[in-house]
Amino acid sequence: MDYYSAQFKALIGLLTGDPASPILWNIFLSDLILMPDFEDVFLAGIRVSLLAQADDLLIISLSLTTLELWCASNFIMVNLIKTIILIFGRLVLPLPTFHLGNTALAIKTEEKYVGVNFRTDTKNILADHYKAKARTARYYMTGRLTPKELKQLYMARVDCHLIHAEDVHVSFIRQMLNLHRRSMIAPLFTETGIMPLRVRRFVLDLGHLVYLLGLNNDTYARTALNSSIDLAAKDLIKAATRLPFHCPELVLTRDTGPKYIEDYAKLIRRLLAEWLQSEIDSSEKLYLLHGRREPQKDKAPAQVTSCMRHYLTMVKTQKHREAITSMLLSTHLLAVEVLRYVNHAYQPVPRSDRLCRFCRSEVETPEHALITCESSDSLVQLRATFLGDLFSKLPNLQWQMADLSNTEFLKAIIQPRSTIALVAKYTHEVFEIYYAVPVFRLVA
Known about the structure:
Elements: H1 21-29, E1 41-43, E2 46-48, E3 50-53, E4 56-59, H2 65-73, E5 84-86, E6 99-100, E7 103-104, E8 106-108, E9 110-113, E10 116-119, H3 127-139, H4 147-162, H5 169-177, H6 186-190, H7 197-213, H8 220-227, H9 229-241, H10 258-281, E11 294-296, E12 299-302, H11 310-313, H12 318-328, H13 335-338, H14 366-372, H15 377-393, H16 395-400, H17 406-414, H18 420-435
Helix pairs in contact: 3-4, 4-5, 7-10, 12-18, 14-17, 15-18
């Protein structure tokens, strides 16, 4: 519908939300050019004395005369309360004084500009920024949501801070899955599809490098890269050595093209998948994850190293989901797991002596508890009910049971999506029976 509002005058500033406002502001600010100074910053021969984020100006200069003249001729008032001086590098005493008009400007050691915290009195000027981002990331580590919801929260509200901050994500994922501090690291990533933080940072750096290498040489961003290309190459090589797997050395020069970096990033992702899979396959604790295959649409099941697993999304009851997670990742409280560690006055127990608390003749493993132990009447009755429900939904599995080992049968009942909620519920109920009785220890 063609309709125009009544005319009105906007005599002060620019209209907030008006699509034309950013363009009008850029035009208005375009003639602010600081006079050359002998101590100006140069990037690859290009003088850079002024940066601007909308009306937040960052002046890299020792002279404010040009700014004063421009403001006076354009009817602009500088907010003196928000205008401060930061001095980077070794201080020379007595400190110089800076004036804007007749007002002396404050010299500070810390300030926040466009979301980044700077400090001038530490070797690392971004130290405060990293700490602030870590605090913000920890703020979101609350609540009892499902793993799928928590992953969405992580990617939306935590990951964006952790790429600047310290390593908080392991604690977040452990809380997501309700795992204890001794749980293995690799499954945190293979079971959720979240990337290890150091690899995530490195891949993001490579993605930004692809963007910079695609810019023209006369842009400030590409000029900054060209002026410090050797330093950037050393930093990336150093970051690569801190990854949990070995990777070829990156070659970065001014002639490096975006395609080379894109291919290198793909290589990093492939090496990450291979490393994670090797960590799973080499762990005796994670035997229930060995040889796992994920269903594929219109294809045969295939190995998928890292993704959000079906038992984390399809088991809606929290206690049931946590029970099957603890079984798969070996963080349960059955004897085979808890007796492997030093516990107060107790020393680690050899695996052959971690016997079932009911039958006291077989090692107390998940497959023994769920499938074979018959020394508890409540356990036997619960198993009979479960198998009846399971075989009614998966009749072919009943005929395969006799040909499978206990471990193979346990893997077989975990894989189908249609019955995973039933299996998780049964796992929880079996663990409840076991946890109600103290773990059995052989008397020397």
